[in-house]
Amino acid sequence: MSSGESVALIVQKFGGSSVATAESIKRVAKRIVETRKAGNEVVVAVSAMGDTTDELIDLAHEVTPIPAPRELDMLLTAGERISMALLAMAIKSMGYDARSFTGSQAGMITDAQHGSARIVDVTPGRIQDALTEGAIAIVAGFQGFSRESRDITTLGRGGSDTTAVALAAALGAEVCEIYTDVDGVFTSDPRQVPLARKIDRITSEEMLELAAAGAKVLHIRAVEYARRHNVTLHVRSSFSNKEGTYVLNEAAAAEAAKKDGTVEEPIISGVATDLSEAKITVVGVPDVPGKAAQIFKIVAKANANVDMIVQNVSAAATSLTDISFTLPKSEGQRVLTALTAEHDEVGFQSLQYDDQIGKLALVGAGMRTNSGVSAKLFEALYDAGINIEMISTSEIRISVVTRADTVAEAARVVHTAFGLDGDEKAVVYAGTGR
Amino acid sequence: MSSGESVALIVQKFGGSSVATAESIKRVAKRIVETRKAGNEVVVAVSAMGDTTDELIDLAHEVTPIPAPRELDMLLTAGERISMALLAMAIKSMGYDARSFTGSQAGMITDAQHGSARIVDVTPGRIQDALTEGAIAIVAGFQGFSRESRDITTLGRGGSDTTAVALAAALGAEVCEIYTDVDGVFTSDPRQVPLARKIDRITSEEMLELAAAGAKVLHIRAVEYARRHNVTLHVRSSFSNKEGTYVLNEAAAAEAAKKDGTVEEPIISGVATDLSEAKITVVGVPDVPGKAAQIFKIVAKANANVDMIVQNVSAAATSLTDISFTLPKSEGQRVLTALTAEHDEVGFQSLQYDDQIGKLALVGAGMRTNSGVSAKLFEALYDAGINIEMISTSEIRISVVTRADTVAEAARVVHTAFGLDGDEKAVVYAGTGR
After folding, report:
1. Which residues in B147-242 belong to E strands, given as ranges?
2. A153 is an annotated ligand-binding site residue
3. How far apart are CA B354 and CA B328, in angstroms?
4. Where ATP is bound, by residue (chains A, B) (predicted)?
């Protein structure tokens, strides 16, 4: 698709590990030039080189423990400024015109929320001018500009994916290619499930569920943006010319399947696992209306991102119940402190904290029309002797919590049970591409 | 002057060595806050940290031998973005409001000449707003914005001094303080002339001559800008609170001298030396009209910065003459090549190249009204057995060329002869402050 016959506008995004050194910048430049040579117009969103962003954050913390958000954004945006200028130079030295643009110059208009700004408008006039004049436009990922405060903003971690998608939407690009160091989106993490297969096509709904369940290849926010604006994503490797994974809206996916003669879509798209969460159990909560609301108001005030919630059936004799929920480990201490502070108000007996859990999620649009998926999942886990501690479901996802040390085995048996195994072992690259 | 009683606007400039580490940034922040605490409004121009600019240039050269100028400017401006954001953070963490501004945000409007842009306008509306709201404004030195091309530009090496002076002029600052790691401008380089004294006041004309003659403490362009716009410069140490050197226009200098009762100004302000030049002699040039013009047209086409020119009296017998001139060593090869290419056209006999020369310049406004200065200079050098190879004069300067290895001794004897020696040895710091 990247080397098509007709003139198309293609947006390409390269992450920090793809532009970590002068050598890799030259490699990426060559790749971009190939796409241009094939007759396409090209817009590139690029992240800061390698660990630049982390290094700048460290530097800020050497100066002050709590950097002023406006100034932190000013600081961090130096990162993409460096990578985009070098990339544009590299392309120009190959005889192709290229121009770099800051978020502000590219028209990435955001609100004034430093560190996690939301895009409110995209006005890519200068990008269009550059394309019209035959140039390749290189845009700083991750950054924007607030009209309100007239200040530089950043979109938050992984914001370069969002930059790429927003540009693709605003410019009406044929496709937004997200380059990474794996071949695409896999049915499961190949490091855990050796027979994992690359997925050729996936709907954005499924991709969202996979990303939310721990698949790290794409950022949720970028997938959401792509879904809302009907942008076709193509997740592919910067190390090969192989087609990767297309992330499409449902209509486009159905259309493509019809063309292929693969209308009978697989029930399950993928199996994701996540070891980054912990479980908090509030033990002995009085089983009266409003208690759950009270607890989760405290949790929300502690700025925690709760994932799964389970409330036990209360024991008739005591009228007490237990409420368990999962959340990122990094937020555990904060929430425990907040709950302990309100102990008397809520009136629970005790708190349990468990950071040895693993989460497994089964995702697939085909689940909607296929009953028996959960039964099959539970059976596969039972056969492997793996105990399920929590269950939660959405329309196209089933998640279960197990012990952390059984989750890899769980992923393998579920992968096999749902017929996802490929014929050969997947190639695993060193990095994660992000 | 920095801690005055009345509210004044003070512009302060800190170079790269003053902000090389997180620690030194905190030290500079403290210094700025002290000036603010004393009741002044403060605007700061800051360079990139330590060797950042050189490192970015190296990176560019790893990508391509000839970086595109627009992209090189985009790249380099990341440097001040980092230092200014860190400095603003550091100040904010001390409880004072501070905001960083890029050259573009600060209204440093330049032409579109990447790498050596000239300032065409300064529109510091945002700086004024920040001051009105009680904030300290931190401005990226060295950078500007072209209205014409809508692109980021840089002012060339040492441009941060110019940024500071331009802001001081546009904002009507009381003084523009240039912080360095020496105590001010000295009558000679203390590393060469141990009895060199700090100059309390100097006219901008004298400062220009000293800078042109090799004194590195201030950039010529910044001094010129200050003179044209009547900005008072104060060159001082960032390591002490001592007054440094005021660079004033003639009227202000005379005014200050009257106040002090030091109206009888010294004849000589300082002695500068320079080892960065080489001498080219065009031997055996036909002594006919237009030959010198022909030669220097060739030299100019090679983009050389010629300093001194001497033409020998032609030998009557041959009607041939020699023309010598000095220029930066770095330009020597280029000019030799250019002249050699035009050998037949010009009709000279040979070229001599000598990079073992040293230049000594004696600068002083008092020279205008005092005869005998050159005689005294030549006598002092003669007494020390130092041979003079070339001489050139301006209204307030006499320069001579000697062998490179005698120039330090020459500076010492001339310094003594003109009564410039101080009572004690000057303190010499490690770096150069630039």
Report:
1. 151-154, 175-180, 201-203, 233-237
2. no
3. 11
4. 13-16, 180-181, 191, 216-217
User: Which chain A residue has the Cα nearest residue B150?
Assistant: A105
Residue B431, pLDDT above cutoff 80: no
Name the residue facing B90 among A63, A86, A126 (closest C-beta).
Answer: A63
The four Cα atoms A79, A83, A86, A88 give a dihedral, to 10 degrees, of -120
Mutation to test the A interface, candidates B55, B70, B86, most A Cβ within 10 Å: B86
- How far is the C-alpha of B286 from the C-alpha of A372, rounded, in Å? 105
Which chain B residues are Cβ-neighbours of A79 within 8 angstroms?
A: 78
Q: Which among B22, B60, B99 has the least Cβ separation from residue A62?
A: B22
Distance from CA of A134 to the nearest CA of B (A): 17
- How many distinct structural domains can be found in chain A? 1
Report chain A residues whose CB lies below 8 A from the CB of B79: 78
Which residue is listed with tokens 């800020």?
A60
Query: Is residue A275, in this structure, part of any structural domain at all?
Result: no
Chain B positions in Cβ-Cβ contact with residue A68 (cut-off 8 Å): 88-89, 92-93
- B254: CATH: 3.40.1160.10
Residue A256 domain flag: yes
For B102, the domain range is 9-263
Chains A, B: CB contacts within 8 A come to 114
Residue of A nearest to B20 (CA): A59
C-alpha closest to that of B281 among B335, B337, B351: B351
Say if residue B53 carries a ligand binding annotation: yes
Q: Which residue is listed with tokens 């050189």?
A: B54
Residue pair A245/A304 in contact by the 8 Å Cβ criterion? no
Does B337 reside within a domain? no
B75 Cα to chain A: minimum distance (Å):
5
Strands B357-363 and B390-394: unpaired
Closest to B433 in 3D by CA, of B222, B215, B224: B215
CA distance B105 to B145: 9
Note down pLDDT in tens along chain A; length 434 residues. Answer: 444 445 899 999 999 999 999 999 999 999 999 999 999 999 999 999 999 999 999 999 999 999 999 999 999 999 999 999 999 999 999 999 999 999 999 999 999 999 999 999 999 999 999 999 999 999 999 999 999 999 999 998 779 999 999 999 999 999 999 999 889 999 998 888 999 999 999 999 999 999 888 777 888 899 999 999 999 999 999 888 999 999 998 888 888 878 877 655 567 889 999 999 999 999 999 888 888 889 999 998 888 888 888 887 766 677 888 899 999 999 999 999 999 999 999 999 999 999 999 999 999 888 877 778 888 999 999 999 999 999 888 888 999 999 999 999 999 999 999 999 988 877 665 443 33
Of A75, A77, A88, nearest to B71 by CB-CB distance is A88
Q: Is residue A259 marked as binding? A: no
Distance from CA of A239 to the nearest CA of B (A): 19
Query: Which ipTM did the prediction report?
Result: 0.82
- As a residue count, chain A comes to 434
CA distance A292 to chain B (A): 40
Query: Which residue of chain B is at minimal alpha-carbon distance from A28?
Result: B63
In the chain, the amino acid numbered B283 is V
Main-chain dihedrals φ then ψ at residue B105, nearest 5 degrees = -65, -30
Which of A56, A71, A129 is the best residue to mutate to test the B interface, defined by the most B CB atoms within 10 Å of its own CB?
Answer: A71
Q: Which residues of A touch B89 (CB under 8 A)?
A: 60, 63-64, 67-68, 71-72, 75
Total Cβ atoms within 10 A of residue A305:
12
Give the pLDDT confidence of B59-116 residue by residue, as tens digits: 999 999 999 999 999 999 999 999 999 999 999 999 999 999 999 999 999 999 999 9
Q: Provide the H-helix boundaries in A38-158.
A: 52-63, 69-76, 78-92, 125-132
B340 belongs to a structural domain: no
Question: Tokens 């004024």 appear where?
Answer: B128
